[in-house]
Structures are given as structure tokens and as C-alpha cells.
Design a protein that fits this description.
The protein is mainly alpha-helical and 370 residues long. Helices cover 75% and strands 0% of the residues. It contains 17 helices and no strands. Helix 1 packs antiparallel against helix 3, helix 1 packs across helix 16 and helix 11 packs antiparallel against helix 12.
């Protein structure tokens, strides 16, 4: 009897690790302004080629968003059979995930903000009360939603996470009633009603995909599907087809015409295809998969802190290495080091126990109040 495939937590970590590779590459090399005037050697590729590839790695955002919604959907499915939940239960579900998100972010926030203030590099540039509001909104992950001054622009993604958490019960209910039609229902209005190039809306097309894929085990079914009986040939055909699709879509995304007409669709289709591709091929590679899983475990800390290293604290040091790969490697190494430092603080402060107890208290109070 064949083992049933499962998209496991370890697989999720590996895909998150790939998204981190994309993230650092995008932020370092997606345009010449990100080089801060430094001369960078991109051998064996040209600068234009590397920057074109790097621009397409912006889809790390869609990958993270898909994985978040995928995990939340599985949690909701496990907790409520057939997604039968009341309004109160949905509210408590959203509240718990949101508070947990804030608690996970608080330590990196204080670490990064503390170092930034000590170095005199704060970007809060408005009046006293406006700055206090901006700090508070950043702490809660709401800065981009309410358009307050951020300490670092990368943290806009937290507002997208909040949006995804709040919208999930509605997306699941809609999916329960209309199934796969949910994808078309999001695609059509999203393509012509939503304003283009807006961070908080252009990635929403991953939501119906993530809900459908989580409920129907689509990733597992795609990996188990055999185009031909011969295993080696089947793997080769899958690689050629999926890689070809990714290349075609990224070329379309990199064109002005494609971005103008299909931005919303591509911000959903490309991340979903890359996730399948990574699950199909990378998670079976003995050396690559453990490395990606390691990065996946550190992904949140790396995401929260890497821009401070690259654009503020060690900007000149980062780009002084001259070669693109060395720059990328230095940024990754420092970000991982910061993650280990944050882990040391977590153990020292018994952070998990304290935040876990606080979360339980908040949920007990909310359960009584609602």
C-alpha cells in the first residue's frame, strides 16, 4: 500500500525557506537604487539579467500569504467540522491568531527599534504624538492599514497578515457555499475593480487558492498525479511543464503590458505554481531541503530584521563585498545571527510561557465578553 502524501509542516518550512531566498534577493538587487551607489559584480550573469530575476522574486510575498491562509484554513477545518462555526467562534478564532501574531512580532520589534534609536537612525519624522501613534501602530502590525509613518517599510506585510486573518472566516464560508467558483469570484472583480499596484489588495488572489488547496489536498494530489507510468519520465515531464509555466508567467509579469493587464492574476498564479514546484522537486532533495527548512524556521526573524541590516545599520558594509552572492550571503548570515540572538532573549525572558499565559487570559476574557 502506497504512503499517502501530505504537505507537512516541514514542507511548509522548506517553502518558507525558499521564500526567504527570494526575499533577500529581491530586496538586494531588484533595481539599481537598492545598490546605494556601490559597484556590484553580478558574474556569471549580467546586471540586467540578475535584476530581472530579482524583480520576479517579489512573489515571496504571495508565497508567504498563501502559506498563512493555507495553515489557517487547516486550523479552522480541524477545529470546526465542515467549517460550522458561529459568529462568536469566528471572532475568537481571528482574535487568537491576531494576538499571537502581535506577540511573535513584539520582541523583534523592540530589538530592531531599540538598536535603531540608539544609532540615531529612527525614521519617525513627524511630531511627538504622531510618532507615538506610529510606534503603537507598528507594534500592532497596523501601520500600513492606517497609513502611519513606519520605522521600516518592510513591515507593511504585517498589515496584509492582519487582513488575511480577519477575512479568512468570510473566505471559508464563501468557499463552503460555492467551492472552486470562489477563485473566479475573486479574480474577476479583483482584476478590474481594485486599484492596481496596492500592496494590501494585489496579493488577495492567493486567498481562494489557499483555501481550496487546503480543503481539497490539491498540492498532494498534484504531486501524486502521474502523467506517465515511468517515474523518471513522469518527474521530467512535470519539471518541464511546471518550470515552463513559471518562466512564461514571470516573463509576462516583467513586461509592462502583462503587469498592466494581469497583475492581480499573476500575483496569485505565480506564487501558487512556485509552491507546487518547490513541493514537487525541492522537498525531495537531500541537501537542499534541510537548508530550506532551517531558513523556514528562522523566516519570521529574518523577515522582520534583514532590512535594518541592509538599508540602515550595516548598509555600506553589506554592499562592500562587491559581488552579489557575497552580499546576499553576508545579509543572510547576519540575519540568522540576529535570529539566534532573539532566541536567546526568548529563553532568557521565558517569552513563550509569558505570552502563552497572556494569550490564554485574553481569550478567557474575550470568551466571557463576547
Amino acid at each position: 500500500m502506497e504512503n499517502k502524501l501530505t504537505f507537512t509542516k516541514q514542507n511548509t518550512l522548506a517553502v518558507k525557506g525558499l521564500a526567504i531566498v527570494f526575499l533577500l534577493t529581491y530586496h538586494c538587487f531588484s533595481n539599481s537604487a537598492r545598490l546605494y551607489g556601490h559597484e556590484v559584480n553580478f558574474w556569471p550573469l549580467s546586471q540586467d539579467a540578475v535584476m530581472m530575476i530579482s524583480r520576479n522574486m517579489v512573489h515571496c510575498v504571495g508565497i508567504f500569504a498563501f502559506l498563512s491562509v493555507y495553515g489557517l484554513t487547516l486550523s479552522l477545518k480541524k477545529q470546526y467540522e465542515q467549517y460550522r462555526f458561529t459568529g462568536q467562534e469566528a471572532t475568537l478564532f481571528v482574535l487568537k491568531r491576531y494576538v499571537n501574531l502581535v506577540f511573535l512580532f513584539l520582541l523583534p520589534f523592540f530589538f530592531c527599534a531599540g538598536i535603531t534609536f540608539v544609532l540615531g537612525m529612527s525614521r519617525y519624522s513627524n511630531g511627538f504624538w504622531a510618532n507615538i501613534t506610529s510606534v503603537f501602530m507598528d507594534m500592532l502590525g497596523l501601520g500600513h492599514l492606517f497609513d502611519t509613518q513606519p520605522l521600516i517599510s518592510t513591515w507593511w506585510y504585517l498589515s496584509l497578515e492582519v487582513l488575511l486573518i480577519v477575512f479568512l472566516p468570510f473566505a471559508v464560508r464563501f468557499y463552503k457555499k460555492y467551492g472552486w467558483l470562489t477563485i473566479a469570484m475573486v479574480l474577476l472583480p479583483g482584476s478590474f475593480l481594485l486599484e492596481k499596484h496596492v500592496h494590501l489588495t494585489k496579493y488577495l488572489f492567493v486567498v481562494p487558492f489557499a483555501v481550496c488547496f487546503a480543503d481539497r489536498n490539491v498540492l498532494e494530489r498534484l504531486k501524486a498525479y502521474a502523467i506517465v507510468k515511468n517515474k523518471a519520465l513522469n518527474k521530467l515531464l512535470k519539471f518541464v511543464i511546471s518550470t515552463g509555466l513559471i518562466v512564461l508567467m514571470t516573463l509576462l509579469f516583467d513586461s509592462r503590458w502583462g503587469l498592466e493587464h494581469f497583475e492581480f492574476a499573476l500575483h496569485g498564479l505565480i506564487p501558487v505554481t512556485v509552491i507546487y514546484w518547490a513541493y514537487e522537486f525541492l522537498t525531495d532533495m537531500p541537501l537542499v531541503n534541510p537548508f530550506l527548512e532551517f531558513l523556514g524556521k528562522r523566516s519570521a526573524d529574518i523577515f522582520y530584521c534583514h532590512t535594518f541590516v541592509r538599508a540602515m545599520w550595516l548598509k555600506d558594509v553589506t554592499y562592500s563585498f562587491g559581488h552579489a552572492f557575497l552580499i546576499w550571503l553576508f545579509l543572510l548570515a547576519v540575519s540568522i545571527l540576529i535570529s539566534f540572538i532573539l532566541d536567546a532573549f526568548r529563553k532568557l525572558l521565558h517569552y513563550s510561557q509569558i505570552t502563552g499565559a497572556a494569550l490564554n487570559r485574553i481569550m478567557e476574557w474575550a470568551g466571557r465578553a463576547l
